[in-house]
Amino acid sequence: MHDLLKAADAGARGCAGRTVQHQKLATIEDVAAIAGVSIATVSRAINEPTKVADETRRRVSEAIAQTGYTTNAMARSLRMRRSNMILILAPDVGDPNFSNILVGLETEASKRGYGVLIGNTQNDATRETDYLRFISSNQADGLILFTGHLPYGFGSDGGESRLPPMVAVNEPVSDSDVPFVGVDNFEGARVAAEHLISQGHRRIAFIGRSTSRAVNQLREKGYRAALEGAGIAVDPRLILDGDGTTESGRQAAEHMFVRDVLPTAFFCVNDATALGVIISLNARRYDLPREFSVMGFDDISFASFVSPSLTTMKQPRLKIGEEAMDLLLARLEGQPLERKEVLLRAELIVRNSVSRLGRE
Amino acid sequence: MHDLLKAADAGARGCAGRTVQHQKLATIEDVAAIAGVSIATVSRAINEPTKVADETRRRVSEAIAQTGYTTNAMARSLRMRRSNMILILAPDVGDPNFSNILVGLETEASKRGYGVLIGNTQNDATRETDYLRFISSNQADGLILFTGHLPYGFGSDGGESRLPPMVAVNEPVSDSDVPFVGVDNFEGARVAAEHLISQGHRRIAFIGRSTSRAVNQLREKGYRAALEGAGIAVDPRLILDGDGTTESGRQAAEHMFVRDVLPTAFFCVNDATALGVIISLNARRYDLPREFSVMGFDDISFASFVSPSLTTMKQPRLKIGEEAMDLLLARLEGQPLERKEVLLRAELIVRNSVSRLGRE
DNA sequence: ATCACACGTGTAAAGGTTTACACTGCGTCA
DNA sequence: TGACGCAGTGTAAACCTTTACACGTGTGAT
């Protein structure tokens, strides 16, 4: 009690003007003094309650309540050589897929006593490198990657062993054995394309081919597998490039009309692309979905608000986040890594942008 | 050199199975040994370069490069009693306004050597309280609030003095003197409503009245001021409640048609609400914007993708984030707080959802 | 020649934990 | 009765920095 009052005066540092007086907080020593035990006992009462006598534990609890003591995380981290923090590296926190996965990550982490630190890299190598200081300075114990590549600076050189435990989400990390948690893109795309086929479509375009994006490639493969499974020949003229942006979807659709090789349905690599296609079709005054069907992938938040509302494959984002964090934490806690890849099923969400062919 | 090799062996802790071998990192002592100076000099060479001789500094730099040394943030934080971390408390990281503000916050923080920690509270009191441990355990030095209220647990009781430096964004914190950085909602709403008036509209609905949300109230006031300034009487039947969700916008519009008291233009409290109104109008097969004009507020990402694309007021989110962080960091560094409120101008973005009245 | 002072560096304390090791009683078993 | 083990606790080291203070040397002024 006495100690605490005295401590309150200290606080302020000698800077000019008025400085923030980060009130000197109660330490484990204050608690020990009040409870009449040693600091070791207080520490044990907190961390290994079974190891201290009931009566002692009670006194310590009381002292803690009285002082409002909280363990100083810095001191603990310093001593334990771990921070209980996870660094999340994302190229763009505005990405519609990001936030829900984040919620999952954060929920699971929080549940297990970890905090999450977010690094928005904007695909800038400097920023990526910069964020690694959190790892190398012990401020974070592990890494979740949204970026689809190893952080710049952790190249393919021998330094590999320096890598902290990592898990990739959203996009797998190519050419590495970083475990990945995500949706089964191949299977999901196949289900999506099969849905279009089941509605009578046979001329189905794929919008969003890309030689560089693993996700796009998997979804294209799923599309091809579905067509093949139904005995439909793949028409290369119906496969258009795209980088997954709305604009790329719009352009691809326009391109089709220019070349005048038209499908009856558009299978888009993602919802953003599908939105671009819909914008293009709407602008051309087509009546959707009567004249063209459009299918997306992801089920981002406004898929249901577009007109016509978008039929798409829903990514179980919350689940992805939780699983990824679970996997990472398990590794951190020394459990051997059992799976290099966790694939979750995408769910078909039927709305109004796909209709049965020929239903007039 | 020798030391480092030996250190590499240590690492692993005695847990069962194979444990993560957080490679023992080089410490300031290793560097000092190699450079042939004391650890104090190394520290100075890093933090106050002018205070060490050129030649010494060179040797230290070399030793640092050789060992790959990075200063241990935990030890530093412990010693300095500050973590150079900012905690961001947000009710929903998926909120379309959130991500861009975050980018601003994070950019400014990063520029000044701070990191940001994100707490997604989902408006859950438990989670809010839970996140405060970051503050009370010294893991974060300051707080950015998206929540519009003081974190639960920091009630109105005498404990106020325990509050860490804070800045509110997105929503001001009512009944407190927490500084706020945001858009000038009153002025922005007035500009928006004046735009509608300038297009000939006189029967303008306000969608999104709320007795509890400060933002809604300010925007409503701006709307009223604009009408008043133009000598237009406010018709209470044209003012409808709403909580800012898309669904509330849809319902409000539907409600108007049921009561059959119709405006020529809808001024919506935000873009999400406007989207709901547009969905309703589209569903009723009205030709927009010929038959009804709709105006939003915020300029969220897909305002330009709706059909018709949304005329709205753009919030300077990046700037808001930067200013807010700047303000907070200034306080942390002991500068007196000069402004309790920083209001930035919203910008009118003219798209296709508003048309001149009577243009057929 | 003396003093003052600046510059560059080292020594050691402090910051708040966790935990290996040692110690004290006390009960149990031979 | 003695040996032993166990439960509960304390002591002190270790984690890695930053920085106040002290020290030694060289330079300029008096």
What is the CATH H-level superfamily of the largest domain in chain A? Response regulator
Average predicted local confidence, pLDDT of chain A: 88
The geometry of chain A reads as: elongated
Q: How does the major sheet of chain A shape up?
A: 6 strands, parallel
Q: How many strands of chain A?
A: 12
Estimate percent helicity of chain A.
40-55%
Return the CATH class of the largest domain in chain A.
Alpha Beta
Tally the helices of chain A. 12
**Rg of chain A (CA only):** 27 Å
Query: What kind of oligomer do you see?
Result: homodimer
Summarize the largest interface: chains and residue counts.
A-B, 64 and 64 residues
Backbone structural class of chain A: alpha/beta
Note the topology:
The structure is a homodimer of 360-residue chains.
Chain A lengths: L1 H9 L17 H8 L3 H9 L6 H14 L5 H8 L4 E6 L7 H14 L3 E6 L4 H12 L5 E4 L20 E4 L10 E4 L1 H14 L5 E6 L4 H16 L9 E3 L4 H14 L5 E4 L2 H13 L9 E3 L16 E3 L2 H16 L8 E4 L2 E3 L11
Parallel strand pairs in A: 1-2, 1-3, 3-4, 4-5, 5-11, 6-7, 6-8, 8-9
Antiparallel strand pairs in A: 10-12
Helix pairs in contact in A: 2-3, 2-4, 6-12, 8-9, 10-11
The structure holds a DNA duplex (30 and 30 nucleotides).
Note down, in words, how this protein is organized.
2 copies of one chain form a homodimer. Chain A is α/β, with parallel strands linked by helices and 360 residues long. Chain A folds into 3 domains: 2-71, Orthogonal Bundle (434 Repressor (Amino-terminal Domain)); 83-178, Rossmann fold; 185-314, Response regulator (Rossmann fold, 3-Layer(aba) Sandwich), CATH 3.40.50.2300. Chain A is built from 12 helices and 12 strands. Chain A has helices at 2-10, 28-35, 39-47, 54-67, 73-80, 98-111, 125-136, 185-198, 214-229, 246-259, 271-283, 317-332; strands at 85-90, 115-120, 142-145, 166-169, 180-183, 204-209, 239-241, 265-268, 293-295, 312-314, 341-344, 347-349. In chain A, the strands form 3 sheets. In chain A, strands 2-1-3-4-5-11 form a 6-stranded parallel β-sheet, sandwiched between helices. In chain A, helix 8 (185-198) crosses helix 9 (214-229). Chain A starts with a helix and ends in an 11-residue tail after the last strand. The interface between A and B is large, with 64 and 64 residues. Chain A binds a DNA duplex (30 and 30 nucleotides) through helix 3 and helix 5.
